[in-house]
Amino acid sequence: MASGVVATAWVRRYLRAYLRPLVHCLLAHDVVFMPHGENIVMVLDGHVPTRVFMKDIGEEVAVLGDLPLPAEVERIRASTPDDVKALGILSDVYDGFLRDLAAILETDGVLSGCDFWGLVADTVAEHAADHPELAAAAASYDLGQAEFRNCCLNRLQLRNTLQMVDLADQAASLMFAGTLRNPAAAPSGSPGSPR
Question: Which pTM value belongs to this model?
Answer without folding.
Answer: 0.82
